[in-house]
């Protein structure tokens, strides 16, 4: 971690003393068999192009604006290294019925919950993972309906099948689906790290404070370069990955 974490400007002096004295924020360390998780990096959260968030959210209510795109580039660096080393890459994205009935509780806290955004000038749904980091044939895609990548999905069983002991988490939003996934991974006794530059949120304060909270209790927040260096220390051939096939697009999947 740098001498001045991103969250320090949001903390009071009392907060800093509490973290210092209580012992929170100790380094947990990387595992021996990591999987990279890419949480919800789709057009609904990134928009279809880099533009200021106040413009992007007019079309994409969940957009995190232009700050999403540097994170996409950082995530691509990690994905490329995983492909080089034969490490698992697991993506999540959303899925909905055409009539949106299964949105359930998502409709309770936003006045725009019924929107189904599509990429401009196309019929491509917002749940499509952005093309810059499109899943490869040996990658795994999990479709979910709630914040955590684990809730109601095969995430835990796939990690068990792979023999993974740890996860490197990237994606969005830091305060929402990323945090929920981190807490479930922690609760299942995986070692958890967050690639700082590979996480993003529509709220700058929520991004910083949630990184602070997760680093204090549930995960190590580390620089992307450190994750790449760690991947380089791992031997090739650790995992029995899928043999490779094309993936169905999220909008073509009717149910789990």
Describe this structure in words.
There is one protein chain. The radius of gyration is 18 Å and the shape is globular. It has 8 helices and 6 strands, in the order H-E-H-H-H-E-E-H-E-H-E-H-E-H. It has 256 residues and is an alpha/beta fold. A 6-stranded parallel beta sheet has the order 3-2-1-4-5-6. The protein has one domain (32-97, 118-252): Isochorismatase-like (Rossmann fold), CATH 3.40.50.
List keywords for this structure.
256 residues; alpha/beta; Rossmann fold; disordered C terminus
Mean pLDDT: 91
Structural class: alpha/beta
According to CATH, what is the topology?
A: Rossmann fold
The CATH architecture designation is 3-Layer(aba) Sandwich
Bin the helical content: 25-40%
* Shape category: globular
Radius of gyration: 18 Å
Topology overview:
Blueprint: H1 13-22, E1 34-39, H2 43-46, H3 53-59, H4 68-85, E2 89-94, E3 140-144, H5 155-162, E4 166-172, H6 174-187, E5 191-200, H7 204-217, E6 220-222, H8 224-233
Parallel strand pairs: 1-2, 1-4, 2-3, 4-5, 5-6
Helix pairs in contact: 4-8, 6-7
